[in-house]
Structures are given as C-alpha cells and as structure tokens.
Automatic annotation (TrEMBL):
Listed name of the protein: 2-pyrone-4,6-dicarbaxylate hydrolase
Domain of life: Bacteria
Keyword Repressor carried by entry: no
Amidohydrolase-related domain ranges (all copies): 48-309
Any Pfam family hit: Amidohydro_2
Organism: Ralstonia pickettii (Burkholderia pickettii)
Keywords: Hydrolase, Signal
GO molecular function: 2-pyrone-4,6-dicarboxylate lactonase activity
Enzyme Commission (EC) number: 3.1.1.57
Signal sequence extent: 1-20
Amino acid sequence: MRAFSRRRFLQMAGASAVAAAVPGLTEAEELWSSGSATPTFKLPAGAVDCHMHIYDDRFPSAPGTTLRPPNASIEQYRKVQARLGMQRNVVVTPSTYGTDNRCTLDALKRLGPNARGVAVVDTSVTQAQLAEMHAAGVRAIRFNLSYPGATTVDMLAPLASRIGALGWHIELVVQGAKLPALESHLLALPCPLVIDHIAHVPQPGGMQSDAMRTAQRLVDKGNTWITLSGPYVDSKAGAPAYADVEPVAKAFIDMAPERMLWGTDWPHPTEKAHKPDDATLVDTFATWIDRADWQQMIFVTNPVKLYGF
C-alpha cells in the first residue's frame, strides 16, 4: 500500500478519527491549531470570537465547492475556547455548504445562548425562513464574492432590504483587488456591512493599494465594520508578526475602534500546510490594538452591540 504522510492523512480524515488512528498525534494537530500555550494577553470577560466555522460531514458539501476541510467539531472548538479564555462566538457558514445552513444551525443549537450565527442565503429565501434563523441565533448573511458561488452582487440590494427589519447586517468576504468595483454597491447598503479578514488588502504594498483606499472610504462612511482575522491569508511577511499586514490593521483600528471586531478564523481552512497558533494570534491582535479601552471595545463591546449578545 502506498504510504501517506501524516499531513496528507490529516487532510483526508476527520481530526477525531485521526487522533485515534495516528499514534503520537499532538493535541494541537487534533484541534487544528498550532501550539498549546495560553495567550500572554488575557482576553477581557465576555470576549467574542466573531469569525469561526464548524465543518461536519453529516452535512453534504455543495456541488462545485473547492474548499472542503476535514471535520472541525464543536468539541474541538470548545477546547480552543478554553485555551484562549473565551465563551462567546459567532459561527459563520463557510462556502463549503453553499446556502445550506444546517451545519451552522445545528452548531448554534448545541452551543447555546453564547453563540450567534452568520448564514448564507440567496433571494429564494422566505421571510419565514429568515425568522426561523433569527430565532436560532442568526444575525447576519454572508456574501462570498471572491469566487463564483451561491451569492452574487445582484443579490446584495434586495437581500439587504429584507434583513433590515430583523436588525441583521451583511458580512462580505472578497479579494481586495475586487473591492473597488463593488464600492458603489456597498455604499448604497441600507444595513451595516462587515468586511472579513482585514478587508483582504493585498500585499505587498497594501497601504498604497486601491483596495485600502476603498476600504477606508467605506469605514469613513460610518456603516462599515472590519473583522480583524486571518492575517495570514494576505501576508507575504508571514507569522508571527505579519509585519506587512500590521500597518493596514492599525490604520483601520485608528480610524474607527468602535467598529472593529476580532475573530480566530478557526479552523483556519485556507491554511492547509500549517495551522497558525491561535494564542499567538490573540497576542498579535492585542498588540496591534494597543490601548486597553480599545481592546475592551473590540473584543467585547462592539460584537455585543452588533450581534445582540
């Protein structure tokens, strides 16, 4: 039989199964997070992880999706929560499931009142379905416009008008290079907008990019929030400092600390070769935020307001 590397085996199997099948598997690998130490920075009480995913092969992947990580379970995530010192989180439906939100809704039911959700829907969704999701803890809908998929630009305006009465917002993930072309659509939204992953400002030269200027104009409008998450996605400098992403994040923080959020991006689905150290990421973001009053806002006050904890 052809031999497989441990990493390849991890990619092909769910983490819990791998833990039982591979002698010597570390807890960090089992939890899809490098390292085992706690953060140096102590997260304030009530901190909210505003961006994480659950993957569960009980729920089928949508046809045509390319990002299909192994299972990342609630039990594994709870261990990461305990390590980081937090209890609240926002479960985001990943592109893997298209507009099928059953995995997220199941997670919300099991996680209880300390969790909120972000769903993916298209214009066929009914008001009754939206109401059911709201009762389950959903507080936003996500548009992944980086690649062709379940949602399109044409759906932004009609769906934004429908979720307003529920007090929801739109969460956007899009490649930074595509952000300028979307600016007019985003400025016209009647509901709050959250842009994931530090607006995906491309590197190198992020501070001088059209994407950065567009994101700054959106933030300046007063209705746009930025999630401080996934610095590894666009960084060319790499861990642990992400020195190229740092000035971008700090610029957003300085502009509007009252509209900044933070998220782990666990289980880091884009990072296939090596998972980042979640504790180190917490310390990095806390250093970038710098001020104690802003740390309280970004880790606690802002998400409590936006997600209705």
